[in-house]
Design a protein that fits this description.
Blueprint: H1 7-19, E1 25-29, H2 36-48, H3 65-72, E2 78-81, H4 85-88, H5 98-105, H6 109-114, H7 119-130, E3 139-143, H8 151-162, E4 168-174, H9 182-185, E5 189-192, H10 198-207, H11 212-222, H12 226-234, H13 236-250, H14 257-269, H15 276-298, H16 312-321, H17 324-340, H18 348-359
Parallel strand pairs: 1-4, 1-5, 2-3, 3-4
Helix pairs in contact: 1-2, 2-3, 7-8, 10-11, 11-12, 13-15, 14-18, 15-16, 15-17, 17-18
The structure holds zinc ion.
Residues 49-51, 60-61, 63-64, 66-67 line the site of zinc ion (ZN).
């Protein structure tokens, strides 16, 4: 169970596992993809491990039966509610709830992802937590994407947070922008995860077999999120769309109005299927990062601030051939698109045409 970064949090949790329980409820917050859920599972293993290193009692060992079952998602004393339960709870009767089954049965991940976690699911979990642990030790309840709990569901949790069963450890995981009621957060020990160091993340990705440029680029694009970096590297269609987008942007400056309109329709044409709108939102963000990098080069900013390090040659050329005003305007156009495109029901074609005309 390898966890990159946030070693201070791991050390803190290791001490808790070694010395006894510090608090019954924890609130894990921080950027997406930095290992919050993995750390929660690692903490479960650290507490449940039956064979810690005898000399320095440094759990988890990773090899005992408890550690192996935590890793495979099959430990009966770990219950998971929320998004991760769709993957982690398979084949594990001890950690399936009605909510989990509903998500399992729903083949549409996107729909499942948007579901709120209601009071009935929380009540079901609370009832489960009142029973003794299966193996006589601690039992864990992890609520992933806890920001999806309705206010009613959060209020239903309050009594458990105030008077938890003696052997229960509750971990609430919230994603960025997600908020819980102050009455809930004030009853939890907060642990704030940080983005990973980009060099460390890039080295890790290279150690997993990704080539230098892709690893560097993915580390920068993800802003220090291993989950997002891996998602990017493994999504070849996304990588292809990005390559084609940058080819189009490289030819945009100084081109004719007709070419700008044609570029707009080519960019729109890169996105297809049910997730076309989300794909376009990603491309808009990538285009903004493209011009942000060129502007950074133009004003002599440090290269480690660049996101698209695999496009250095083209970006340098664009920076040389452009004025600061042009790059600033282009960046602002794409940024404004990112801020307003998704929330509004705009005419995509006209919208892209306007931006491309701004950049030609
Ligand atoms: Zn162990």
């Amino acid at each position: 169970m390898e966890i990159i970064g946030n070693q201070n949090i791991l050390e803190h949790l290791r001490k808790i596992a070694r010395n006894g329980q510090e608090a019954p409820s924890y609130l894990f917050s921080g950027p997406k993809g930095v290992g919050k859920f993995l750390t929660a599972r690692w903490f479960c293993a650290a507490v449940l491990c039956t064979n810690p290193d005898i000399d320095d009692f440094s759990p988890p060992c990773g090899n005992c039966s408890a550690c192996r079952r935590v890793k495979s998602g099959n430990h009966p004393d770990i219950s998971i509610l929320g998004n991760q339960s769709t993957r982690a709870s398979k084949n594990s009767p001890g950690i399936r709830t009605k909510a989990t089954k509903e998500i399992d049965e729903n083949k549409d991940d996107k729909k499942a992802h948007k579901m709120s976690i209601g009071i009935e699911e929380v009540r079901e979990g609370i009832a489960q937590m009142q029973t003794c642990s299966f193996e006589g030790g601690y039992r864990f309840w992890i609520i992933d994407e806890a920001q999806r709990l309705t206010n009613e569901a959060q209020n239903a949790l309050l009594k458990t947070l105030e008077e938890p069963p003696a052997s229960l450890i509750l971990i609430l995981i919230v994603q960025p922008g997600g908020q819980l009621l102050p009455t809930v957060t004030s009853r939890c020990r907060p642990l704030n995860f940080r983005p990973l160091n980009l060099k460390e993340l890039s080295s890790y990705l290279q150690s997993q077999g990704f080539d230098h440029y892709k690893a560097e680029t993915a580390a920068h694009i993800s802003g220090g999120s291993l989950g997002l970096a891996l998602n990017f590297l493994q999504n070849t269609q996304l990588w292809d769309r990005r390559t084609k987008l940058f080819e189009l942007l490289n030819k945009l400056k100084g081109s004719s109005l007709w070419n700008a309109l044609s570029t707009a329709s080519s960019i729109e044409g890169l996105c297809s299927g049910a997730t076309a709108k989300e794909q376009l939102a990603e491309l808009i963000e990538m285009a903004a990062s493209f011009y942000r990098d060129a502007l950074c080069l133009k004003v002599g900013g440090p290269q480690d601030l660049l996101v698209n390090v695999d496009n250095l040659e083209n970006l340098s050329k664009l920076a040389q051939e452009s004025t600061i005003t042009y790059l600033k305007n282009a960046l602002e156009s794409w940024q404004a698109a990112g801020n307003t495109y998704l929330p509004r029901n705009v005419n995509t074609k006209l919208y892209l045409q306007k931006i491309c005309l701004d950049c030609c």
